[in-house]
Amino acid sequence: MRRKPKSTPSAFDMKTLLLAALFALAVGCASVERKGTIQTPPVEYVK
Amino acid sequence: MKILTAAELELTCAVAGYAPMDVNKFSVVDRRYAMPTRDFLAGAFSAALWSFQSFFDVLRWSEEANDCDDFARLAAAFGQILHYLTPNRPPATALAIGELWYVQDSGGGHAINIAVCGPAPSDVVLYEPQTRQVVRLSDEEKAQIHAIRF
Predict the structure, then answer these.
(1) Sign of torsion, CA A25 A27 A28 A32?
(2) Which residues in chain B are closer than 8 Å to A27, comparing Cβ atoms?
(3) Contact A45 B39 (CB under 8 A)
(4) Any A CB within 8 A of B74 CB
(5) Domain with B121 in it: what CATH number?
(6) What pTM was computed for the model?
(7) Are B37 and A47 in contact (CB under 8 A)?
(8) What is the pLDDT of residues B19-30, one digit of tens each?
(9) B33 touching chain A per CB within 8 A
(10) What is d(CA B31, CA A9) in angstroms, rounded to the nearest whole number?
(11) Range of the domain at B122
């Protein structure tokens, strides 16, 4: 019996992966917008 | 720019009365420390820490998951990030902001930050990262410090 050859992800798999990546990106961007920005002032050192 | 060695930093804290009962619980893990000014700690650092806590939605206390030790750890790590990002940062130095654990007069353990803002014992500052304010310990609380880490 011939084995099914191992192959690269099918078109369906690729589409699923792409959708998952886009979803993660959307969630990430949404949380960044909701929480504002982080201030990063330079440290003032004792001279 | 003034730099403290690890030994000088530990000695400064100890003379100021901040030393754990068990000397093995005083961890100073870097060799050299640059010191933030007291004004920076109370001003720009506090405002930036608020923005950092707000960004990650960790302003509210939560039992075990986001409690005093987590606030203290986050504040010390955030100070280190600002130090790393500062363009004129003295080379090969850490920032003298650490964590301190003690038993409160009211009972129960608590964790806050300790910062060395100068070479004199009076320059050692305690900082409450949950309110982002400089605080003091009573003599009894100083005697109940059980760990310090820089």
Answers:
(1) positive
(2) none
(3) no
(4) no
(5) 3.30.460.70
(6) 0.83
(7) no
(8) 999 999 999 999
(9) no
(10) 51
(11) 3-149
- Does A35 sit within 8 Å of B40, measured CB to CB? no
Q: What is the ipTM of this complex?
A: 0.94
User: At which residue do the structure tokens 């300790």 appear?
Assistant: B114
Q: Which two tokens stand for residue B58?
A: 């960790």
Q: How many domains does chain B have?
A: 1
Buried b / exposed e over B57-91, threshold 16 CB at 10 Å, is eeeeeeeeebebebbbebbbebbeebbeebeebbe
Whether A33 has its CB under 8 Å from any CB of chain B: the answer is no
B98: contact with A, CB 8 A cutoff: no
For residue B127, count CB atoms less than 10 angstroms from its CB and return exposed for 0-12, middle for 13-18, buried for 19 or more: buried
Residue A37 neighbours by CB distance under 10 Å: 11
Residues B92-144: pLDDT tens digits?
999 999 999 999 999 999 999 999 999 999 999 999 999 999 999 999 999 99
B124-128, strands of its sheet edge to edge: B26-27, B145-149, B97-103, B109-116, B124-128, B133-135
SS3 state at B28: coil
First-last CA distance in chain B:
20
The SS3 of residue B112 is strand
